[in-house]
Amino acid sequence: MPNSPVEGSERAPALSHLRVTLDSGRRRPATGGLPVARLRWAISLFFALDGFVFAGWVVRIPAVKERIDASPGMLGLSLLGVSVGSVTAMLPAGRLCRRYGNHPVTVVTAALLSLSAALPPFAHDAVQLGLALVLFGAAYGGLNVAFNAAAVDLAEAIGRPILPSFHAAFSAGGLAGAGLGGLLAPHLGPRPHLFLLTVIGLLVTACAGRVLLRAPVPRRPGSLSRDHPEGVRTRGTDSAAGLRPLIAVYGLITLCTAYGEGALADWGALHLSDDLRTGPGVAAAGYAVFALTMTVSRASGTRLLERLGDTTVLVAGGLLAAVGMLTGALAPQTWLVFLGYALTGTGLANVFPVAVGNAGASGGSQGVAVASALGYTGILLGPPSIGFLSEAFGLPTAMTTIAVLAALAALLGRLAHRAHDSPRNPPPPTDRTPRHHLMRGQHP
């Protein structure tokens, strides 16, 4: 990662040691800096751990469903606990980050996530499963807030667009968790499997946490903390009202795509095991295919955007995901379902990050907040909606709603492009803070 110029006349800190400032805005001595490579490695490990643990739980949903003998509707209500816990914990986690710092909160919530992953297999009915998943979701949501804040701080400090690489680490962790689950599912029940995830998670937390706890929050020299009133920059409040419809469109795109990601994660393996009568290993491999294609697409997302542009990635990604999900939901053969999942992962991978990034470019922090809130609403709605629809129409038909919303995201992407180019929408004011590289690549 070579040194490069940053905004104004400042230069990026040397990679060997990074000058940092604390949340209070006070500067640390240069000797108190931590090598950027180590800090980036540690944060990436927490992103990967998050995906690893979550995917490990997802691939065991069919086994837990069978253990508690839950109907699709009741299972849908239980799975809602993850989303409820996540959304409920996000605002308190933000306050904890402001009070105690992003790094300590990252370590604590990662430990809680690892511990709570062992709880679902001990549930005896859908109610107990839902309560266990509320705890799991709360840790998951808190960790997402904390490590995203830590990643943004590091990206700001070195002045480089590194945030997508962290989310690629999340996808890689999901791939590893799904792959391990596929290997272990035929031989281990959900209790020993998820207990193993707890042990691995605590070991990773202890290893990466040591680095993170020694490192204060990095800042560029001369910059102020975002929590300091004078350190907050906003984009032209005079033009904000005119940009609200455009921001809302990008927010709806995040809702459509997050619905698909959450629903497929919870129901993709179950579709293979129940509707195509595959074994637990094959069902787990289906989600692994989805995770693999999403990982590869996110790893190359920056280069893809530079070559094709935001609108093409939004529209083509949405349409590709729609075709893929129709194939995955309705195909009668396992290999076609795998192909559909692969196309869906490829299509959805960069739509959400592009939409959130464009919302931030149009409306600053307010635009990001609107788009992110709508995105998490999609995650909240996806799993239970599929559960209720499957009760009435069957799971394959219910999963076609993912394709419908992906196609809607493509249409909204085209409309957003036209609205952005309209003379009635002047380009957003600029400031010295490069926002585009901070939010692109963010995950629900």
TrEMBL record:
Membrane topology: Multi-pass membrane protein
Subcellular location: Cell membrane
Compositionally biased region (Basic residues): 434-444
Main location: membrane
Residue numbers spanned by region Disordered: 418-444
Keyword vocabulary terms for this entry: Membrane, Transmembrane, Transmembrane helix
Identification of the protein by name: MFS family permease
Species, as recorded: Streptomyces griseochromogenes
